[in-house]
């Protein structure tokens, strides 16, 4: 079921998570801003929801990949 996740190189996920998770680096990463909006209940505009998914997906995939590696060892 998760063979597609096994086929993604770990290095690619790390690079994508750092770049997309941290972009823009100054003044504050989008992912931090969107998570703060989610916690405050102000994440309602479609563009903000898309931004959260766009910047958070590489981080989520990296966590899933690391969990999968730990599970198989």
Instruction: Note the overall shape.
Output: elongated
Helical content class: over 70%
Strand content: under 5%
Number of strands: 0
Query: How many domain modules?
Result: 1
Low-confidence stretches: none
SSE ordering? HHHH
Major sheet: size, sense and barrel closure? none
- Average per-residue pLDDT, rounded, comes to 90
* Class inferred from helices and paired strands: mainly alpha
From the N-terminal CA to the C-terminal CA, the straight-line distance is 18 Å
For this entry, what is the oligomeric state of its chains? single chain
Radius of gyration: 14 Å
Your description of this structure?
The chain is elongated. α2 packs antiparallel against α4. The protein is mainly alpha-helical and 73 residues long. It has one domain.
Identify the notable features of this structure and list them briefly:
73 residues, single chain, 4 helices, mainly alpha
